[in-house]
Write a structure and sequence with these properties.
four-stranded antiparallel sheet; 251 residues; single chain; alpha+beta; rod-shaped
Length: 251
Amino acid sequence: EKGWGGNHPQPVIAPIIMNLDPSAGGEIFLKSEMERATITWYELPEFERSSKNTIQLVLYKDGSFDISYIELNPDPRNRSLKIDVMTTANISGSVLGGRGNKGISFEPRLIGIHPGGRAAPLQPIRFLKDLPYSSTIPGAIFEAYDIDYYQYIHNRMMPLAFILLGSSIFILFFFPIILKNSLIKPLHVLYEGMEKVNRGDINITISPRFNDEIGFLTRSFNRMLHSIRKAEINFRTLAENAQDGIFIISE
């Protein structure tokens, strides 16, 4: 009753952790022989469910066992319930959180064996490919159905995690460099050019770095300086001609 840890942990063979209700239908058979014992849960429904489940456990004299699933129909509405698999979990007819003494039904999440003892480590395996399994220390050998789903989510989320990590590194380290070269430096060069013009030096030309808005502004600034220089030359020429004309008239 308290096989998966608890106050008085005992060895457990769990064909499946699933709350079945023999009083609602189905039968349980036990066949004992010299070399083996066979236990069959035949068409047993879950608590407060109409689904039928047939499972068979064969215990051999040498300590090995077979588990067969002839019919397994867990109610899909139970998939929203979460059962944490821990060495101190108590699985019994009255599951913690159930109503009254009947317990609650939940999705079959785990099959396996537990040697007993609170400190037994958990060892997940795949029963279809990892058997026969041997170990030098006692441990809880189990197969959790949700591990495959967690691994699937892990594999799906791993590329997104790398993308987010790469984006964060790019924004943290490379984006400031790009911003400095593409925005701050061109604006600073344009600002220095305007300072020189303000001091009277109009014989400058600023080379645009990129073909963008700042580059357009830089080219417009260069055209403005070119127009100013051209207008200055014309004014100087007119002034010189006017001065020459005044001298000629005065003679």
